[in-house]
């Protein structure tokens, strides 16, 4: 993996080669990564792995025709061949009046913000092993746990560099640390499994392995002795571990490409109330140590914190330059891409702001409700918003979490869910996309 300066220089040289070969415009991305991981099970070492890789990609334009190619070979000969191949491919590509780089006047410039994304040096395998063993030991110590599916600990690092013929050049690095544990509770046909994990940019921000393991064990044991709930309409609470998935569906629906293709259930909702009054949804790519933080987007635009939804009203789409041209708007700074792909969009640290009522208040809001802690399958129609997914969780009666439920489905439509949902006050920033407990006042619950 190249240093920041070397990765930026490699991307710059590739752009220069493309222009010298006759390209009208070009941009290049360098992506390097390394990772180490240790897996254990039942107190014994199962696997130690380490991977390192790097890739450089070129997007080359001949008028409104373009091609994108990538290579893991960074030698001069390989890069000459890459440029020649991209030039030939672009000549055969269809014309696209929306294609092109971001205009030079919109590009951001150094110095870029320091987002504190680089943590301590990578731990050695022995330290990772000890962390994984500690997590598994804590999980297996929970009364009712009968077996282990394993525990792991890992560390990673990455470098991203971008250069464009419009004059942009920049690079940034990030580190990551993780730990997870999974266990089985019970015996025979009544066995249940669950897990817990955490990741962070800095090791000092990572939950202790003992906390992660204990949570995995407690979750598995809580799922024992499940019952079948009644079918029909019921209030549904989404635990934070699954509530964030609603924001993933929302992000897809407001992506510029979905809107430009007229394939979004929020197609005509810009400037309209989509969520209840008081709801705020924030995109914050500049959060210090955030898992999705970055100092610029994958087209060289500045990124900023923004309220995508304010007081329930949809304020903006998320658009890279191509879909922005189709929609007649400015690109929004959400472009993302790999070395071998054209830009798409990805939110930064994305979250729904905490509401006024506590989790306990939401649990007690109805005489009976369903608390969902696991979602299964991908039954969401991005065009209509129809929503139907397998689920597991717990019956809630009188505000108290009761017996576990398995093999159920929950169904509604995302338009209605967004309009009526209420976030709790228990928001924590633990992932790249975060949500507190969310109450949806009515969904259809079915049993298998």
TrEMBL record:
<dbReference type="InterPro" id="IPR045570">
    <property type="entry name" value="Metalloprtase-TldD/E_cen_dom"/>
</dbReference>
<dbReference type="GO" id="GO:0006508">
    <property type="term" value="P:proteolysis"/>
</dbReference>
<dbReference type="InterPro" id="IPR035068">
    <property type="entry name" value="TldD/PmbA_N"/>
</dbReference>
<protein>
    <submittedName>
        <fullName>TldD/PmbA family protein</fullName>
    </submittedName>
</protein>
<dbReference type="GO" id="GO:0005829">
    <property type="term" value="C:cytosol"/>
</dbReference>
<feature type="domain" description="Metalloprotease TldD/E central">
    <location>
        <begin position="121"/>
        <end position="224"/>
    </location>
</feature>
<dbReference type="InterPro" id="IPR002510">
    <property type="entry name" value="Metalloprtase-TldD/E_N"/>
</dbReference>
<dbReference type="InterPro" id="IPR036059">
    <property type="entry name" value="TldD/PmbA_sf"/>
</dbReference>
<dbReference type="Pfam" id="PF19289">
    <property type="entry name" value="PmbA_TldD_3rd"/>
</dbReference>
<dbReference type="Pfam" id="PF01523">
    <property type="entry name" value="PmbA_TldD_1st"/>
</dbReference>
<comment type="similarity">
    <text>Belongs to the peptidase U62 family.</text>
</comment>
<feature type="domain" description="Metalloprotease TldD/E C-terminal">
    <location>
        <begin position="231"/>
        <end position="446"/>
    </location>
</feature>
<dbReference type="InterPro" id="IPR047657">
    <property type="entry name" value="PmbA"/>
</dbReference>
<dbReference type="InterPro" id="IPR045569">
    <property type="entry name" value="Metalloprtase-TldD/E_C"/>
</dbReference>
<dbReference type="GO" id="GO:0008237">
    <property type="term" value="F:metallopeptidase activity"/>
</dbReference>
<dbReference type="Pfam" id="PF19290">
    <property type="entry name" value="PmbA_TldD_2nd"/>
</dbReference>
<feature type="domain" description="Metalloprotease TldD/E N-terminal">
    <location>
        <begin position="26"/>
        <end position="90"/>
    </location>
</feature>
């Amino acid at each position: 993996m190249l240093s920041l300066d070397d990765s930026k220089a490699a991307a710059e040289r590739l752009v220069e080669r493309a222009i010298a070969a006759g390209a009208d415009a070009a941009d290049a991305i360098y992506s390097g990564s390394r990772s180490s991981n240790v897996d254990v099970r039942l107190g014994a070492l199962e696997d130690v792995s380490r991977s390192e890789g790097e890739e450089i990609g070129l997007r080359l334009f001949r008028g409104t025709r373009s091609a994108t190619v990538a290579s893991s070979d960074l030698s001069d000969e390989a890069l000459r061949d890459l440029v020649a191949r991209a030039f030939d491919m672009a000549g055969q590509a269809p014309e696209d009046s929306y294609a092109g780089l971001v205009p030079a006047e919109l590009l951001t410039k150094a110095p870029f913000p320091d987002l504190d994304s680089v943590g301590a040096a990578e731990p050695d395998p022995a330290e990772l092993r000890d962390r994984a063993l500690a997590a598994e030991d804590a999980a297996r110590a929970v009364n009712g746990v009968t077996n282990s599916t394993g525990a792991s600990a890992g560390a990673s690092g990455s470098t991203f560099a971008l250069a464009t013929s419009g004059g942009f050049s920049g690079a940034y690095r990030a580190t990551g640390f993780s730990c997870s544990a999974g266990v089985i509770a019970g015996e025979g046909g009544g066995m249940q499994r669950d897990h817990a994990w955490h990741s962070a940019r800095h090791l000092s921000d990572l939950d202790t392995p003992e906390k992660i393991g204990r949570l995995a064990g407690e979750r598995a044991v809580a799922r024992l002795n499940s019952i079948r709930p009644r079918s029909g309409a019921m209030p549904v609470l989404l635990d934070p571990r699954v509530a964030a998935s609603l924001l993933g569906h929302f992000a897809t629906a407001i992506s510029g490409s979905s809107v430009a293709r007229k394939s979004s259930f929020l197609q005509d909702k810009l400037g309209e109330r989509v969520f209840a009054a008081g709801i705020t949804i924030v995109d914050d790519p500049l959060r210090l140590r955030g898992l999705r933080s970055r100092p610029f987007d994958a087209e060289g635009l500045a990124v900023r914190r923004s309220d995508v939804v304010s007081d329930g009203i949809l304020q903006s789409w998320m658009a890279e330059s191509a879909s922005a041209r189709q929609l007649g708007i400015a690109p929004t700074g959400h472009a993302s891409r790999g070395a071998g792909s054209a830009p798409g969009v990805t939110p930064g640290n994305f979250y729904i702001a905490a509401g006024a009522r506590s989790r306990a208040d939401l649990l007690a809001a109805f005489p009976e409700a369903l608390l969902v802690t696991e979602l299964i399958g991908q039954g969401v129609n991005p065009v209509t918003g129809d929503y139907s997914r397998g689920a597991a969780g717990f019956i809630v009666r009188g505000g108290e979490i009761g017996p576990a439920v398995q093999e159920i489905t929950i169904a509604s439509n995302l338009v209605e869910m967004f309009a009526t949902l209420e976030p709790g006050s228990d928001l924590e920033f633990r992932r790249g996309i975060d949500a507190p407990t969310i109450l949806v006042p009515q969904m259809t619950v079915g049993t298998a």
